[in-house]
Amino acid sequence: MKIRLLVSAAAATALVAAAVASPAQASQKAIAAPAVPTFVDGLAQAVFSTNPADWYSGEVWVQAPFDSDHDGAPDRIHADFTAPSEVLTQGLKVPVIFEDSPYYAGTADEYSNWGVDHELGSPPATRPRAPFWAAFDTSPVISTVYESTWVPRGFAVVHAESPGTGHSDGCPTSGGTNETLAAKAVIDWLNGRARAYTTKDGSTRAVAGWTTGNVGMIGTSYNGTLPEAVATTGVAGLKAIVPISAISDWYDYYRANGMVRAPHSSSNPSGNNNAFQGEDLDVLADVVYSRLDETGARTICQPVIDDIERNIDRATGNRNKFWQERDYMKDVRNVRAATLLAHGNNDFNVMTKNAAQFYAALKKQHVPHMFYFHQGGHGGAPPDVLVNYWFTRYLYGVQNGVERLPRSWVVREAASCPPRQTTVAGEQSNTATLAVADTTPFRIGFSLTVPQTNADGTVTNTNRLITKIADSTHLVLAAPVATAAGQKVADGATVSLQCSNANPTPYAEWPDPAAGQAGLHLTPGAPARGGLTFAPTKSGTETLTDDSSIAAITSANAPSSGVRLVYQTPPLTKPVRISGTPSASLQLAFSASKANVTAALVSYPPTGNGTILTRGWMDPANRVSDWFDAPVKPGKMYRMDVDLQPKDTVVPAGNRLALMIVSSDRDFTIRPAPGTQLTLDLSHSSIDIPVVGGRKALADALK
């Protein structure tokens, strides 16, 4: 394959020469020299047509190696593709950006989650099925979400509809094996190992002769989960994945340590704002079931959805073989695809445990890996420059050095943003090349904040993408700055990278290698707030009474309450960075044989309400294992270790860190009638917080 690498001074000179050539010469060269994949500074460039009318597009039905709708024939999976026209006119072969999804044809407008206001172990017998709804027609075009970015850069884009959705055969299974194998079959087709057809029922074969067979999968949420699932098959040709807010174990999506625990639709749980409370595997399958060949009531896959309902076990919440099928971690040893992972610190939909455990496995296996961890909720792709580096390196094989970049990119809070700045060298106007004192703090593809002094003396900040670092004192920007009449960038003005999703902060690895667990012990204070101390205590017991009608955040901010127990540090004298997975070791007794346990890490500012940083949940009957119940005898003390969701955050000076214990968590758990009492043995309970700098750093911040 011909590719063009433009990184040298000679290449730059050639570009200048081309720019000053006569129009006739330029026209002849444009005709004589068709576009080829081109890379500048290790990044794929948009040198192919941006006009969709110029692209080569089509649709196929890939034959899958299963019959999940049980009609006696292998399922066929609907896929579309788009590539630069040069794959036809020049015989060019290109790698593929591939997104697989159950969502393209839409989701049910009306559906029913499971009821959650009932006693533990006694869920409703059933729930209503979603009524028929009209799905979007996804033929011949399934989606156009990635084409405008990647086709001009010399990649093909493929979309495929998961089984039982749109124009695909089969049935949705919410993470079942058939969904993994369906996407794998598309990659096999792209590599000549599987058959595809030009129509759903026809026999005319379709061959993907326009691709190199190198595939990178990308997507968010369910669409990000499927890349991880397919990667665990070890399929040849899948070179890279970019999973965003992805599930690595469906049990950890709908359960937590034996507890039936819902995902949350908001990054700011308030007690009454969770549209996903009561959702489960069967609900999701019901919602995405959109087969377009069923024009009346959809019945083909109802037996499959009924089977999901029978196996999810909302009574005990235990892990079983059904859930294990949907645990990709059991097969993570097969992953070979270079993985650029993205997740939000405050994603209470797909919890951060899903990202952390998958990433930890990749590190252990020495699979190329990188982690983009922002401060938002669900979704949020890495900056385009990182994705471009990733796909350029692993799909085109360009040695751009991405593997030598920092492994971890965390979006820092504005108050904790490290300075990345320099000063402008000389007054400048209407320029896209900015002279500065030092370009060292900056990176290509990041967003530079530039203060522009207006004609009336006021200053207006503007942001420009850095497209090139020309040398040690010049930054090339995507567009000129200070273009208005009388506008300038003043000599000595400070230009900077402000912390945002576009400008994450680099770290060597995640969790931060300097992080260490800082253990804190509990001192009494109920019904107000007790304390946290480094020294072990002999503090007796304190008791709370479950009341699921009260939101956890309400309990956290109540100065006194019998519904929760809170233990807090003194105010921090300096900022503390948490990086990793906090955990609480609790010694608890219960007044009933069934109960919920919720632990939360809270940050209290000097004034105003606190924020729940992260939470963890456990069914006391699963204190030994997710797989089975160990009976709970009322009044007897039991130890349970509750993992909270992984976190990377900087707690400001002046704030207090606190451990809160409640029973039912209104936002997430089953909500039984109030009254169950939990008694905590303070002297045998503690919390471990992963602090950068370890115990010493936290101790110094508490002086």
From TrEMBL:
SMART domains: PepX_C (SM00939). Residues 388-688 form the Xaa-Pro dipeptidyl-peptidase C-terminal domain. InterPro entries: AB_hydrolase_fold, Galactose-bd-like_sf, Pept_S15_Xpro, Xaa-Pro-like_dom, Xaa-Pro_dipept_C, Xaa-Pro_dipeptidyl-ppase/CocE. One of its GO terms (molecular function) is dipeptidyl-peptidase activity. Keywords: Aminopeptidase, Hydrolase, Protease, Serine protease, Signal. Coiled coil: none annotated. Residues 1-26 form the signal peptide. It catalyses: Hydrolyzes Xaa-Pro-|- bonds to release unblocked, N-terminal dipeptides from substrates including Ala-Pro-|-p-nitroanilide and (sequentially) Tyr-Pro-|-Phe-Pro-|-Gly-Pro-|-Ile. Its EC number is 3.4.14.11. It is an enzyme of class 3 (hydrolase). Gene3D superfamilies: alpha/beta hydrolase, Galactose-binding domain-like. One of its GO terms (biological process) is proteolysis. Belongs to the peptidase S15 family. This is Xaa-Pro dipeptidyl-peptidase.
